[in-house]
Design a protein that fits this description.
- The longest helix has 21 residues.
- The chain has ten helices and eleven strands.
- Helix 2 links the parallel strand 2 and strand 3.
- It is 41% helix and 16% strand.
- By secondary structure, the chain is an alpha/beta fold.
- The chain starts with a strand and ends with a helix.
- It folds into two domains: 87 residues, Leucine Dehydrogenase, chain A, domain 1 (Rossmann fold); 123 residues, Rossmann fold.
- Helix 2 crosses helix 10.
- The strands form three sheets. It has a six-stranded parallel beta sheet.
- The protein is globular and about 50 Å long.
- It binds NADPH dihydro-nicotinamide-adenine-dinucleotide phosphate, 5,10-Methenyltetrahydrofolate and magnesium ion.
- 5,10-Methenyltetrahydrofolate binds next to helix 2, strand 4 and helix 10.
């Protein structure tokens, strides 16, 4: 068997088309959704992601503002920038590109963003609402993963979803969203013993660890749905956390890297920004 590819790039393009007409409707009411992105330092990967976000905003008609600051910025200075954006009526969403320098507390920064402008869905209030199933901004990568599975009509109810990775931005929330969809969820991480025994039981396997081609065909059950969140640069080329060529012969569905989860992450950021602008009304 050769897996059906879950084409995130294509679904992202389709969703962005739909967003354009929503934004035209908002324009009638004199609302232009606005996103502020704060980029600290000169990390090449972060710069490239931020460019991707700005390009996507321009494509659908979201106003975007880039605030670039040097590595030497103090935590206090950054918090003041966030306060200003919290008060800015043209800004519906605020994103601080991670990682940030070690001398600044990531948690302090995330908690300073007004929850109703936290389009990343990282604020503890929004995480809490996600856990209780209240409507809120869902974290973009997990939200994008669930949208891709739904688009392919992959039934989640009662399925065993195994998540490899437990970061606050990907692993933990993707498990929570799948639980909200009535999947049975198991988390694996760097201390997990006999991980293969767990991953080979997965109907749905989500991998988000940041280790190139770490998950191989032997880790996967025949017919499983495999979602590769990893983005790794090896010899100048992008690859995921899953050994694509091996796993595609065993999985029923598989996401490519690039062109899988990544474009969906940006798309759900746009979606959250539009949702935020709609609540101005
Ligand atoms: N496509 C997209 O839109 C996005 C892609 N990414 C990519 O996804 C990947 C993960 O990102 P992120 O969640 O931020 O990463 P983190 O580094 O924050 O977390 C990695 C997680 O993987 C676990 N882990 C690491 N090594 C192993 C191992 N050998 N076996 C089992 N578990 C392991 C860690 O365990 P422990 O907790 O025990 O340390 C940790 O929970 C990266 O490649 C990143 O670039 C990230 C965000 C968005
Ligand atoms: N506050 C914050 N929010 C984030 O959402 C956030 C962040 N910080 N820090 C870094 C990670 C990573 N991330 C990606 C987004 C898009 C692609 C993406 O579009 N990838 C393309 C390839 C892009 C390329 O060619 O480099 C693809 O997979 O096809 C990847 C990774 C968001 N993150
Ligand atoms: Mg991280």
């Amino acid at each position: 068997m050769s897996a059906t590819l879950l084409n995130g790039k294509e679904l992202a393009a389709k969703k962005r088309e739909q967003m354009k007409s929503k934004i035209e409707q908002l324009a009638v009411e004199n609302i232009t959704p606005g996103l502020a992105v704060i980029l600290i330092g000169d990390n090449a990967a972060s710069q490239s992601y931020v460019r991707g976000k700005q390009k996507a905003c321009a494509e659908v008609g979201i106003y975007s503002e880039l605030i670039e600051r040097p590595d030497s910025i103090t935590e206090q200075e950054l918090l003041v920038e966030i306060d200003r954006l919290n008060e800015d009526p043209a800004i519906d969403g605020i994103l601080v590109q991670l990682p940030i320098p070690a001398h600044i507390s990531e948690q302090a920064v995330i908690e300073r963003i007004a929850p109703n402008k936290d389009v990343d869905g990282f604020h503890p209030i929004n995480i809490g609402k996600m856990m209780t199933g209240e409507k809120t901004f869902l974290p973009c990568t997990p939200y994008g993963v669930v949208e891709m599975l739904k688009e392919a009509s992959i039934d989640l109810e009662g399925k065993h979803a195994v998540i490899v990775g437990r970061s606050n931005i990907v692993g933990k929330p993707v498990g929570q969203l799948l639980l909200n969809e009535n999947a049975t969820v198991t988390y694996c991480h760097s201390r997990t013993k006999d991980m293969r025994n767990l991953t080979t039981q997965a109907d749905i396997l989500i991998v988000a660890i940041g280790r190139p081609k770490f998950v191989t065909a032997e880790d996967v059950k025949e017919g499983a749905v495999v979602v590769d969140v990893g983005i790794n640069r090896v010899d100048g080329k992008l690859c995921g956390d899953v050994d694509f060529d091996g796993v595609k012969e065993k999985a029923s569905y598989l996401t490519p890297v690039p062109g899988g989860v990544g474009p969906m992450t940006i798309t759900m950021l746009l979606e959250n920004t539009i949702q935020s602008a709609e609540s101005r009304k």
